[in-house]
Amino acid sequence: MKNYNLKFKIIISSIFIFLFLPLVAKGAILYFEPSKGEYHLGDTFIVDLRVDTEEECINTVKVIVAFPKEILEAKDFSTGNSILSLWLESPKIDQKEGLISFVGGIPGGFCGPLPGEPEKPNLFGRIIFKVKEITGGQFSGKLNFLEGSQVLLNDGFGTPAKLTLKEAVFTILPEKLEVPKGEWQEELAKDDIPPEPFEIKISQDPNIFGGKYFIVFSTTDKQTGIDHYEVKEGKKNWKRTESPYLLEDQSLKSIIKVKAVDKAGNERIVEYLPPQKPFPWWIAILFGGLIILGSGYLVYKKLKFKNKTSK
């Protein structure tokens, strides 16, 4: 009887594992790097947002970070070398609330570093903080991933991963250095490489811009990240904008230029040349006919002159 009960429990346990274990959400860890440090008043430093997929594959992330707004000023957010190539919601800094948020995607998914890849290819982005020049002695501030953060598995179902959210703690010393630390300025000074090459695509959709022609474009910058885009149509001035961009020249006769500018000021400019219309066939025939008639007339005049002189 005991053996029978034992076998029954094993069978039930096996069925449970087989049926329900795949439904259990697998994990991912969101963490900051560095996770601690000491900085002085006026210093500028960089904090990386990274993920440990724990050998699982992910494809979409929503991140909300809270920072101590009384102590730190979030100056910028760099997407350079990010594993996120599709930005559903671009990084947004809300200094008033002390929040940074974004939603990004990874077409094809990300399953962690592969053999031979650069060290730690698991970066979402980099926050550039500046320590406020406040009084009151030494301070301590925390960075936190809020509970609204989410990571979806690349399993075809958009299954939310079970998250482990790490924090970072920074100590702000009351003194100000003669030359404040400038980690971001050092990164900008090293970046002399323009954004990656890209294409301009003309599109038309009845659900976008009322069916008018628009262009789409996108690129990445592996060093400091893309700062902004500019568009120029024909002889018009450059206009700072985003993709998609509604074209002013709906006849599509103008040369279109798009400029991608990275955080260090490096530029990449690409052009779209309007398609050349084929030369009308009837003009070619008319032109050819005129040449034939003109040549025939000259031959006629020449023969007529020759006949007169021979008499």
Explain what this protein looks like in three dimensions:
The structure is a single chain. The chain has 311 residues and is an alpha+beta fold. It folds into two domains: 25-189, Immunoglobulin-like (Sandwich); 201-272, Immunoglobulin-like (Sandwich). It is 18% helix and 41% strand. The chain contains three helices and 19 strands. It has helices spanning 2-20, 183-190, 281-310, and strands spanning 27-33, 36-40, 44-52, 58-66, 72-78, 86-94, 99-110, 123-131, 139-145, 150-153, 162-165, 167-173, 201-205, 208-216, 226-233, 239-241, 245-246, 256-262, 267-272. The strands form four sheets. Strands 2, 4, 6, 7, 9, 10 and 12 form a seven-stranded mixed β-sheet that branches. A five-stranded mixed β-sheet has the order 5-8-3-1-11. β13 (201-205) and β14 form a beta hairpin. The longest helix has 30 residues, at 281-310. The relative contact order is 0.14. Residues 6-23 have low confidence and may be disordered.
What layout of secondary structure does this protein have?
Blueprint lengths: L1 H19 L6 E7 L2 E5 L3 E9 L5 E9 L5 E7 L7 E9 L4 E12 L12 E9 L7 E7 L4 E4 L8 E4 L1 E7 L9 H8 L10 E5 L2 E9 L9 E8 L5 E3 L3 E2 L9 E7 L4 E6 L8 H30 L1
Parallel strand pairs: 1-11, 2-12
Antiparallel strand pairs: 1-3, 3-8, 4-7, 4-9, 4-10, 5-8, 6-7, 9-12, 13-14, 14-17, 15-16, 15-18, 18-19
Characteristic key phrases:
2 domains, Immunoglobulin-like, alpha+beta, five-stranded mixed β-sheet, elongated, seven-stranded mixed β-sheet, 311 residues
Brief overview, please?
The chain has 311 residues and is an alpha+beta fold. The protein is built from three helices and 19 strands.
